[in-house]
Specification:
Blueprint: E1 2-5, H1 7-15, H2 19-29, E2 33-37, H3 38-50, H4 55-68, E3 72-74, H5 83-88, H6 97-105, E4 110-112, H7 116-119, E5 126-127, E6 130-133, H8 135-141
Parallel strand pairs: 1-2, 1-4, 2-3, 4-6
Antiparallel strand pairs: 5-6
Helix pairs in contact: 1-2, 1-3, 1-4, 3-4
Length: about 140
C-alpha cells in the first residue's frame, strides 16, 4: 500500500522517537511504500528550522534526512491536476489542498495526517481513491 505522509507526520517522526516514528518503521517493515512530495518535505524542514533550539534540532534535521531516505519523494504539479481531482479537494483550506492532490496524483491509498483541525472532517473518508487517516486509524487499519 502507498501511504502519503503529511508534513506534520514527517515533523513528528523527526522530532522524537515516539509512536509516529514507530508507526512509520512498522509500515516500512510490512513493505508498505512511504510517499511524500517536495511540498510537504519543504514544510516539514521549514517547521523544524523554525522551532530550532541548537543541538536537539540539529538531531531532528538529521533524523528528517534519514527518514526521507526511506520515503519516495516526488515533485508534483498541482496546476496540472484534473478538474475531478481539484473538486475532490475543495473541502480543505487552500494551503492544505496540495497535500491531498499530491496523494491522489501519486496513486496513494492513504493520506496519513495528524492535522485533525483541517483534515479531521475527512478522516475515514475516501477522495478519488485516497482514504484520509489519522495515525491511530492507520495503525488500526494495518
Amino acid at each position: 500500500m502507498r501511504v502519503f505522509l503529511d508534513a506534520n507526520i514527517l515533523f513528528s517522526a523527526a522530532k522524537s522517537d515516539g509512536a509516529i516514528r514507530q508507526l512509520l518503521r512498522n509500515l516500512t517493515l510490512a513493505k508498505h511504500t512511504l510517499v511524500a512530495d517536495s511540498y510537504v518535505q519543504a514544510e516539514a524542514s521549514r517547521n523544524i528550522a523554525a522551532k530550532a533550539d541548537a543541538q536537539a534540532d540539529a538531531q531532528a534535521v538529521r533524523d528528517l534526512d534519514a527518514l526521507l531516505n526511506t520515503v519516495e519523494v516526488s515533485a508534483v504539479q498541482f496546476a496540472q491536476s484534473s478538474p475531478a481531482l481539484q473538486a475532490a479537494a475543495l473541502w480543505l483550506p487552500e494551503k492544505d489542498r496540495p497535500v491531498l492532490l499530491a496523494a491522489m496524483a501519486l496513486a496513494c491509498a492513504v493520506l496519513l495526517t495528524g492535522d485533525s483541525t483541517h483534515f479531521g472532517p475527512g478522516y475515514g473518508k475516501r477522495f478519488e481513491g485516497v482514504i484520509v487517516c489519522s495515525p491511530r486509524q492507520l495503525a488500526e487499519l494495518v
